[in-house]
Amino acid sequence: MHDDDATTTPGGEVATTSAEDDRSLVLLDIDGPIATITNNRPSKHNAMSDAMDSRLWEVLAECHERTDLRAIIWRGAGPSFSSGRDTTQIGVRTEDISDLEFIERGHRATQMFLTMPCPIVVALHGWVVGGAFERALLCDLRIAAESARMMLPEVVHGVIPDSGGVARLFQMAGHGVAADLALTGRVMGADEARMHGVVSRVVPDGDLATVVQEVAEKIASAPAFTVKMARRTLAHLATSEVQRSIAEEALAQSMVFASSDYAEMKAARTEGREPRFRGR
């Protein structure tokens, strides 16, 4: 499914009008031991469509198989890292596949963030929303520009975060902060994110690319096996819990899609009335 020229809100909604070249949606540039992955739908604040996800999985798979990479930079072109999921595609299936199968297939690809053989450094600026925020949380390091605004708005759209990011956020910031973001969809600014350990540094927007490049080069210059062992230690501390959360989220999200409350929310929005939720 292709998306087109659109205005994107902080929650990720887009209105579509013309097609895009799938391969241009996510760019890969390799310069020696460092790869740079770029979300490339700038006119839509890099809202993630099915086509964009598919291209991202292709790029990650290519990086996963390379033995010459020592660090990966993940960034966004234009005004935002990513405004999140294209909400016109939430719960929409263009193939004969169950919600659970669809979600689990995406999760198998998402696991590449956790198993990548070299560190991923994420450059966050502008909107960092929903699934894109969750995926960034699965990476090794996050450096934020002062403009970065992070949020998990899924509950506003009647669904739940389902990419493992809440588990990682829980590990970083504790139950209270994770619950606050996941249950209210509020915005968290860059300085608050640094205070909670969600990002390691906050820099002026104009310095973000330079700082992230310097961090990647620093990692790439260290002994590769030493970096591998350091990441292995960190993974043993935290990754298994995130993977268990991802498995639980797949079941929970598929139940949400089949729930009466989700159907009522969509019907109420279509009919322009207040929803009448029954808790089932």
Helix/strand/pairing category:
alpha/beta
Tell me about the biggest sheet?
6 strands, mixed
According to DSSP, the number of beta strands is: 9
Strand order of the largest sheet: 1-2-3-4-6-9
Q: Indicate the multimeric state.
A: single chain
Radius of gyration: 18 Å
CATH architecture: Alpha-Beta Complex
Helical content stands at: 40-55%
As a percent range, the share of strand residues is: 5-15%
Search tags:
280 residues, alpha/beta, 2-enoyl-CoA Hydratase, Chain A, domain 1, six-stranded mixed beta sheet, three-stranded mixed beta sheet, 9 helices, disordered N terminus
Q: How would you portray this structure in words?
A:
This protein has 280 residues and is an alpha/beta fold. It has a single domain, classed as 2-enoyl-CoA Hydratase, Chain A, domain 1. It has nine helices and nine strands. The chain has helices spanning 50-65, 99-115, 130-137, 165-173, 175-184, 190-195, 208-221, 224-257, 260-271; strands at 26-31, 34-39, 71-76, 120-124, 127-129, 141-145, 149-151, 188-189, 201-203. The strands form two sheets. The chain has a six-stranded mixed β-sheet with strand order 1-2-3-4-6-9, with helices on both faces. A three-stranded mixed β-sheet has the order 5-7-8. It is globular.
